[in-house]
Amino acid sequence: MKRVAASVGLAVVIAGSAQAQTGGKQVFACIEQDANGFSHDGTSYRRQGFNPRKFTIVLDGMNLNVKIGNDEEPYICSKPFNSRNVLQCVEKTYFMVFSLDNHRFNRAQILGPVSNTQKPDDMAVSYGTCQRF
Questions:
Q1: pTM, 2 dp
Q2: Alpha helix ranges (H) inside the chain
């Protein structure tokens, strides 16, 4: 009985230690398979293919942080109706859907002409995959 209690205690300590190291966060390395949309050329929008990008995701509960180069985008996520393992996440002008099962994502940048700037933002949609590390 003491051996069982010691084994259970050790397992709890090891699990707690692993949880403490990551703080309950999950980290993913992601790459876009393809990205397309519209780019503003100074007078109007034109169809545009964009170079796929690599980035990391830190998932902490229902918060998702995307880091691309030196830029960080904090998203707030929810689970859509009738979908336990998919997150839909919103940042200021980005929208992302992420599968907790297969780690695939869809991502959209949609501010575009409503930005009211001299050169409006590009609009883009991409998809890709992530690997947990």
A1: 0.77
A2: 2-22
Angstrom distance (rounded) from CA 130 to CA 54: 10
Cβ neighbours of residue 124 closer than 8 Å, sequence gap 6 or more = 35, 36, 37, 38, 48, 50, 108, 109
**Two structure tokens written together for 122:** 């590009």
pLDDT per residue as tens digits for the range 51-85: 999 999 999 999 999 999 999 999 999 998 888 89
Angle at 58 between CA 25 and CA 106, to 5 degrees: 130
Amino acid at 88: Q
Contact 87, 100 (CB under 8 A): yes
More confident residue, 86 or 40: 86
Structure-block tokens of residue 6: 């010691």
Whether the Cβ atoms of residue 13 and residue 34 lie closer than 8 Å to each other: no
